[in-house]
Write a structure and sequence with these properties.
- This protein starts with a helix and ends with a helix.
- It folds into two domains: 340 residues, TIM Barrel, CATH 3.20.20.210; 104 residues, Glutaredoxin.
- It is built from 19 helices and 14 strands.
- By secondary structure, it is of the alpha/beta class.
- The radius of gyration is 21 Å and the shape is globular.
């Protein structure tokens, strides 16, 4: 059975001869070619070359065309900032209020980078589309609205719910059209990637997001294709509600217990995927770290309907040997059995180098924001935006530090502060806002309360 068939059968929960393997190659494809991320994401020919080479190098059963959740926002008027080793991030938000979305022009696929991605999708479909399942990744409705409205959206959900619902319908319709765009050009599967879901409560997910996601899945099903819902961050609180959407598959990152996802997915007859650790196993780990974490996922996710995948978009500089080692575990049962006997996790002695400040002795309140990377991860970006905005508004001196777990320093701070999930805001060394973005008033109050406590010492 060829890889594409394995993926499609797995999505339908049909037994397959082995586990499906889906490396989420985005800007890592640029690294494979030896070019920068910005150059790569603005060239249809480079995207096609990089994704094809990555699919061959890592023996992928499925692969995304492109992993960039800012494409729709860019074409709708959001300005972007461009790092050289990651996808762009949104730096401005055109909506003054959710009600203003009614005045926006519909998404035009002749704008932004959609013409380049159309070329890449067609080229990949012709070259490898018969054997590899091409995924078209769509910015989910809530993430798209977050890009258009910014962090004010979290206050809107409390104060302007009717207009938020109307805006979510508009974003669902936009996501549905983007899904059709990918299918028109040769994609086989649509992934609705909505990482901002992990930052809201179950109540808000059910009120604002669930039906919007299902509307996109319905549009995909109307075309005879399959739909996956992919959420980064700690989406545990919303996991069963996500299973009740009309998507065929749920995929998660390392913040979610894969055994729990497996149980809920089986209960709701969904396929499921995840969640090899991006940084400690694939980016910064040894070959054995990559093997052992892939084995962990294979054991925890075992069963019909499971797809082995990294937890999110692969970092640009992920060592190819680590990805190949993870692929071996899915594709070769003999190598997997050997690794169970011989592989040993790498040491993390470098954690001893991490030194934290004496928070009680600092005049300022210190906000440590633990992120994957705010330049590449939407929830991390908006968590950082919330921290910076609150620091400006608070009647107290504040220092804001970002600690990216794509680097050893960030992992060290994360471990020292006993942070389990990203993104998280710690207030003077205490995890306070864990994988949920606070509204400005709540975070300002927490800062000012901590400052009063320090003044009383």
């Amino acid at each position: 059975m060829i890889g594409k068939e394995i993926v499609l059968n797995t999505l339908r929960r049909i037994e397959t001869p082995r586990t499906a393997w889906l490396p989420y190659v985005g800007v890592h494809g640029a690294s494979v070619l030896g070019v920068g991320a910005r150059t790569y994401l603005q060239s249809g020919s480079l995207i096609a070359r990089g994704q094809q080479q990555a699919a061959e190098l890592y023996r992928a059963d499925g692969i995304p065309v492109v992993f960039d959740l800012q494409m729709e926002a860019e074409a709708l008027g959001c300005p972007l900032a461009w790092p050289e080793d990651g996808p762009p991030s949104v730096t401005g938000h055109p909506l003054s209020a959710c009600a203003a979305i009614a005045d926006m022009n519909p998404l035009d696929f002749s704008k932004g980078r959609f013409p380049e991605v159309a070329e890449a999708t067609r080229t990949l479909a012709a070259a490898i589309g018969d054997t590899v399942a091409l995924y078209g990744l769509v910015a989910g409705p809530f993430t798209l609205l977050s890009h258009l409205r910014g962090s004010e959206l979290f206050l809107d959900m409390l104060m302007d719910s009717d207009n938020v619902l109307a805006a979510m319908d508009w974003c669902a319709a936009t996501a549905s059209r983007t899904a059709e765009f990918y299918l028109d050009h040769g994609a086989a599967v649509i992934a609705v990637v909505d990482p901002m879901i992990s930052q809201i409560s179950l109540e808000h997910f059910e009120l604002f997001v669930s039906e919007a996601i299902s509307q996109v899945a319905d549009a995909v099903h109307d075309r005879g294709a399959l739909a996956s819902l992919f959420v980064c961050g700690d989406a545990t609180r919303n996991l069963e509600a996500m299973c009740r959407t009309r998507c065929d598959n749920l995929s998660v990152d390392e913040n979610v217990d894969l055994s729990l996802l497996r149980a809920l997915a089986q209960k709701h007859n969904k396929s499921y995927g995840g969640n090899i650790k991006l940084t400690t196993a694939l980016l910064l780990g040894t070959l054995d770290d990559a093997r052992l974490d892939a084995i962990r996922c294979l054991d925890e996710g075992a069963g019909p309907g499971f797809i082995l995948a990294p937890g999110c978009d692969l970092p640009f500089a992920t060592p190819p040997a680590n990805l190949s080692a993870a692929a071996d575990m899915a594709l070769d049962s003999e190598l997997r059995d050997e690794a169970r006997e011989t592989a040993r996790a790498g040491g993390m002695d470098w954690l001893d180098e991490t030194v934290l400040p004496d928070y009680d002795d600092t005049e300022q309140v210190v906000l440590d924001v633990i992120t994957l990377d705010s330049a590449a991860c939407a929830p991390c970006q908006y968590m950082m935006d919330a921290a910076r905005a609150a620091a400006e508004q608070a009647d107290a001196p504040v220092t804001v530090n970002e600690h990216k777990i794509k680097r050893r320093e960030g992992i060290g701070v994360m471990c020292r502060l006993d942070v389990k999930n990203v993104p998280t805001i710690c207030v003077d060394g205490v995890p306070a806002f864990i994988s949920i973005i606070p509204d400005a008033n709540t975070l300002v109050e927490a800062i000012e309360q901590r400052y009063r406590e320090k003044q009383q010492r």
